[in-house]
Amino acid sequence: MAWCPSAFALDPSLDISQYAHTAWKTREGFFNGAVQAIAQTSDGYLWLGTEFGLLRFDGVRSVPWQPPKGEQLPSSNILNLLAARDGTLWIGTRQGLASWNDDKLILYPELAGQAIFALLEDREGTVWAGTWTTPTGRLCAIQSGRVRCHGEDGSLGQAVLSLYEDNGGNFWVGAATGLWRWKPGPPKLYPMPDPEIRQLIEGDNGALLISMHGGLRQFLDGKAEIYSLPDIPLQIKPTRLFRDRDGGLWIGTQDRGLLHINQGRLDVFGQADGLSGDSIVRLFQDREGNVWVTTANGVDRFREFSVPTISAKQGLSVATVWSVLSAKDGSVWLGTSGGLMRWNNGQFTAYGKRDDRQLTDPPEISVARKAADTALLDDVGSLFQDDHGRIWVFASRGVAYFENGRFTPVTSVPGGNVHSVAGDSAGNLWISNQGHGLFHLLGGNVVERIPWAKLGRTDYANALSTDAAAGGLWLGFSQGGLAYLKDGEIRASYKVSDGLGRGSVNDVRLDRDGALWAATEGGLSRVKSGRVTTLNSRNGLPCDAVNWVMQDDAHSVWLYMPCGLVRIDQSQLDAWDAHPERRVHATVFDSSDGVRSSAPSVGYSPTVTKIADGKLWFLPGDGDGVSIIDPRHLPRNELPPPVHVEQITADRKTYDTSSGLNGHLRLPPLIRDLEIDYTALSLVAPEKNQFRYKLEGQDRDWQGVGARRQAFYNDLPPGNYRFRVVASNNSGVWNEQGAALDFSIAPAYWQTLWFRAACAVAFAGLIWALFWLRSRQIGREFEASLEGRVAERTRIARELHDTLLQNLQGLVLRFRTVQSLFSTRPEEARQILESAIDQAREAVTEGRQAVQGLRSAAVDTDELSEAIRTLGEELARDPAHDGSVELRLNIEGTPRALQPLMRDEIYRITGEALRNAFRHSEAKRIEVQLGYSERRFDLRVRDDGKGIDPGFLSDDVLPGHYGLRGMRERAKEIGGTLTIWSALGLGTKIELSVPGTAAYLRARRARRFWLARKFSAVRGQRKP
Fold first, then answer.
1. What is the pLDDT of residues 850-864, one digit of tens each?
2. Which of 161, 225, 460, 847 is an S-S bond match for 804, by CB 3.0 to 4.6 Å?
3. Half-sphere exposure of 269 (CA within 13 A, CB side)
């Protein structure tokens, strides 16, 4: 922000003690070491040079300045600072000179090892530096990076201590050899009586004021004369001189604090008054008009109060003021605990008990003082001026009125505890006395006294106001409630149930429209045409209780409340009157503006008055002095504050905002706690600066955070962000442009785009793989279904071959036998035929079972050997064999239970082998051997028949011959190995080998299977 003139200056008519003062003391830890230099750069920061380094100060916190890494100042002992117009900060140290601008630190070797005691930028932009060096001091000019020094010849002596350029363009140098006018023209020396020229400044009359060790001198027309100060009987030792923008002269002394001279008046402010120290080091005024003072013990700031206070330092004989009254002649009367005082044309006059300072009265009021002493007006409470211009004074010991320069006692009215007085143009005077009731005076005589009980009250009236138009009197009571009195009777009354504010009524006033305003503990109430409305914190007031109400010349309403002095524009009140539910906008002046607030007062009156020039005089809550506010000239700071984002703290690690690459700061991943520190550089009242911020990419709206200077965020996701902050100064002027900081949070590897893309690809691949596997599964299921159908058809073919076809083939053989015997042996043929018929029935039954129940067990008994033996005996009884075939069954090993399906398939393989042997081999002996071993089960079927044609042993099945193929298929299904050996004339051998793990049932399972079979058999026997 460009440097601009102050819009918030100091009122030159005020004393130092009437300015707002803030002190930062070294011993309280605000700074480390004495502050020896002070400057303000164009960015708004205040820079403080100390014995131990350079500090950057924003009015709230000071931050040690650190040079770039690997660089350092010539010395950490800072003696002088200069903020140049181009934004450069020049740093004069005990061991040399440096400059800082745009994050670049420059050292000047020509001044290395020299103490920089003076710095100045002239109107041409040249920076001048004065040094203290042994054996001779030097004056160096720095322009465009080039350094040119003077004084090597010893002409300047050991030191150059001060530099100054006056309004005429003369450049002055205070050196050890005297005062030099360096330019224009050739340098010229003016010898001085004191070799230590500490400061140079231009005086009121064009003379040059010189601060020397021995005192102040005035240099005019080539001569240096002693400069005397008003009201300073003792010799002072000035250290610094400074003229503020309002023309006030500030003098810093070595041991007497701060002196201020303006309009011929001098006031002193020292350590006893709150200054950080009596030894002044530097004086400085910032761009907003604040005056900064550095002492050996700290830093002080002075600024103008919106509401200054007049106290004993400004002439009050007693600080405790009970009442304040503006008279028609322009004077102001004060009722105090020490008597009566009158202010007129900036001067105070005391009446009553004389104060310790023995104020001198003007001759014309000496009689008045004597009369006041006679009336014993030493403790004055309420005041009032009637329509005839008489000032009524109500003291603890009596009542009197001031007229024509003298006091007249009034014995008919008791003094003390008079809380309010009111009168009208007809000469009626109403006096509220707490203990004696309401007095009605006419022409100075009591015509009526009304006890409070007669009005139906147990309390008393705090406030009175006459209604000139209606001729009545309004009363506001200490325990709440309003009443309208006319002709000795209460004509109207209002209480909380009618809408009146709760609690004590502290003040009542009629406005120009005839409406009554009542200041109550519950808010500001308005009574008009019998309608009561109350304005309080629900409608926009900062709090509820109102001590008094006053309307200024612009018709704005002023309220004195425990939370401050409040102004409400008339337009706001009119809008609220039309719509009582709406909120009003109120301007609040608080302690930072000089307002000292308190609880509602129940003391004397008036506590506020408006004087002829429109200023409001009122009593602060603590009763110390009297405060003044000028509604027409309210100090307003029009300079929007520069705003800066200072640093970011991420997970307790601090990052300087200037360290980012091209203004973009990069933060590591997985940031949990983020704190952003920012500031606004309005130094008038930093505590009243307001902030709003927004983190683009995170916040949807601006966040209003009041005066807080930190923003906090948690668990921000990775990405790019922009932090924006705007701020207002103490007067509510906003810098809407504010400041911005771009930063980014790096992603963890699982938060990166490539990782997410890889995950997406992997997920898509997984979906594709699942789809492919599912497709394969469906394909396999379909193929398995087809294979199952084929296997089922094959199994049916085997079953039909092993059952129905075999039986039918046996029937064909029997029918041939019957045919051959039918002519020779009919009886035998008949028997064979009957047997064939029975066998046909069995074949039909077996065929039906083969078709409808192919999955039923082929063997009904668990003993495979018994089933084979039975089958062999049936085949041997066939008449075609004539009983000539011998069948043997051998068992090797201990028989074991076989798997049910395994047993059925082995049985069918054995049956097929036996049928082939009985029907086709023409064997004489058939042997079946069952082998049970731990590792496998073996089956061997051997015969001594004619053997099998080699054409039938191949895998290619001849049409109509499926027996051997079916045996192989069954062996394969049960995981066995089938071997068929045969030769013509040598018989046939069939061997089946099945692994024991596949063939045998385990013992527990075998028992369960046996029990199940037994239970099934029992159930079968029970069927009808």
1. 554 444 445 544 578
2. 847
3. 26
Q: Is the pLDDT of residue 440 over 80?
A: yes
- Which residue from 148, 138, 214, 143 is spatially nearest to 180, judged by alpha carbons? 138
Closest residue by Cα to residue 562 from 520, 611, 603, 525:
520
- For residue 212, give the H/E element and its range: strand 208-212
Decide if 940 contacts 991 (C-beta within 8 A): yes
- Residues 561-620 pLDDT 10s: 999 999 999 999 989 988 988 999 999 999 889 998 776 555 899 999 999 999 999 998
CB 730 within 8 A of CB 684: yes
For the beta sheet containing 719-728, the strands, ordered from the edge strand earlier in sequence to the opposite edge, are 664-667, 734-745, 719-728, 690-696, 703-706
Structural contact between residues 912 and 798, judged by C-beta atoms closer than 8 angstroms? no
Identity of the amino acid at 812: V
Closest CA relative to residue 141, chosen from 110, 104, 175: 110
Contact partners, residue 105, CB within 8 Å, separation at least 6: 67, 68, 71, 73, 98, 99
Which residue blocks in 927-979 are alpha helix, DSSP H?
A: 950-953, 963-973
CATH of domain 867-1024: 3.30.565.10
Q: Where are the domains of the chain?
A: 1-30+243-304, 34-242, 310-629, 643-748, 752-856, 867-1024
Is residue 469's pLDDT more than 70? yes
| pTM score, whole prediction | 0.73
Q: Is there a common fold for 34-242 and 310-629?
A: yes
At CA 764, angle to CA 759 and CA 767, rounded to 5? Answer: 125
**Mean pLDDT in the chain?**
85
Sign of CA dihedral 1013, 903, 952, 810: negative
pLDDT at 945: 86
Phi, psi of 692 (to 5 degrees): -135, 140
- Residues found in the chain: 1024
Give the end-to-end CA distance of the chain in Å, rounded to a whole number. 113
Decide: residue 750, CB within 10 A, 0-12 exposed, 13-18 middle, 19+ buried: exposed
Displacement of CA 637 from its chain's centroid (Å): 28
Kindly report the CATH class assigned to 310-629: mainly beta
477 pairs with which residues across the strands?
Answer: 461
Q: Rounded CA gap, 476 and 469, in Å?
A: 19
Phi then psi for 778, rounded to 5 degrees?
-60, -40
SS3 849: helix
C-alpha neighbours within 13 Å on the C-beta side of residue 734: 11
| Residue 973: Cβ-neighbour burial (10 angstroms; 0-12, 13-18, 19+) | middle
- Phi, psi of 971, rounded to the nearest 5 degrees: -65, -40
Crossing angle between the packed helical segments 900-920 and 963-973, to the nearest 10 degrees: 160
Rg value, the chain, Cα: 60
Residue pair 140/128 in contact (Cβ under 8 Å)? The answer is: yes
Report the share of the chain in percent with pLDDT over 90. Answer: 53
Mean pLDDT of 213-228: 86
Report the CATH fold assignment for 34-242.
Methylamine Dehydrogenase; Chain H (2.130.10)
How confident is the model over 338-393, as pLDDT tens digits?
889 999 988 888 886 544 333 334 433 333 444 444 445 778 999 999 998 999 99
What element of type H or E holds 794? Answer: helix 753-800
Q: Which of 701, 828, 359 is nearest to 342 (CA)?
A: 359
